[in-house]
Amino acid sequence: MRGINIWRSGNIQSYAEEFSTPAVSCLCYGAMSEWHLGEIASCQANLEDAISIAKELKDVNALALALRWAAGLACAERNLAEVDRLASDLMELSVRYNFSHWLAIGAIYRGWARSASGNTAEGIALIELSSTV
């Protein structure tokens, strides 16, 4: 949270070589730490904040990272509809910006959600698709 506070103060400069906005990364890693400590509500709020900041800054790399973490949380909570929605968003973003790594991750999450909801054949096909990306 200290990293977020420093970023929000405006007294920090981002560098061109950074993969994504540091505040988004801080929020994602902090959120998952909170989840492990049982702080589910603040975890979800921080992931929503990470997605919002990435969209506001138009940082598509950071948005992909935040969508991945949010899908991971939804998967851990067995929220199949949310996993499917977030995976779809991640896959759409990945196709638009040619992010093969994130496209494969999105396909795996979407395949898991489809399989877990009873559509095993479609789910397995999506997971297998991820290995060809």
The poorly predicted ranges are none
The 3D shape can be described as: globular
User: Ends: how far apart?
Assistant: 35 Å
| Beta-strand content bin | under 5%
The rounded Rg comes to 15 Å
Average per-residue pLDDT, rounded, comes to: 88
Description:
With 133 residues, this protein is an all-alpha fold. The protein has two domains: 1-77, no CATH class; 80-133. The chain has seven helices and no strands. It is globular. 36% of the residues are buried.
Key attributes of the depicted protein:
2 domains, globular
What's the layout of helices and strands?
Blueprint: H1 2-9, H2 22-36, H3 40-57, H4 60-76, H5 80-97, H6 100-116, H7 120-130
Helix pairs in contact: 1-2, 2-3, 2-4, 3-4, 4-5, 4-6, 5-6, 6-7
